Amino acid sequence: MGIFDAMRRDDPEAARALQKWLTPLRNAFTLGTFLQVIKEALALAGYPVGDARAPVLPLEAAAHAELRGILGRMGKLAS
């Protein structure tokens, strides 16, 4: 909603800053399938929604570590 609100306020700089903040998270979706990434991201953020069911597998360890780093830099890891 922040991006939408910024544009309604005619504040493209604020909208651009929010878009830039979201870029690493958008890029995280290249680490695996949508389902893999969203379920792991939710779990890391403190919302354990369970593992993906077959045939979808959990993220590989390196991708999981990268996702954890992205969420950590965004301040979105569960404490």
Textual characterization of the structure:
By secondary structure, this protein is mainly α. The chain has one domain (about 1-75). About 60% of the residues lie in helices and about 0% in strands. It is built from four helices and no strands. The chain has helices spanning about 1-10, 10-30, 35-45, 60-75. Helix 1 runs antiparallel to helix 2 (about 10-30) and helix 3 (about 35-45) packs across helix 4 (about 60-75). About 10% of the residues are buried. The model has no long low-confidence stretch (mean pLDDT about 95).
Shape: elongated
The beta-strand count equals: 0
Strand content: under 5%
Taking the sheet with the most strands, its summary is: none
In short:
The chain is an all-alpha fold. It contains 4 helices and no strands. It has one domain.
Helix and strand arrangement:
Elements: H1 2-8, H2 12-28, H3 34-44, H4 61-73
Helix pairs in contact: 1-2, 3-4
Task: Please describe the structure with a list of short key phrases separated by commas or semicolons.
4 helices, single chain, 79 residues, mainly alpha
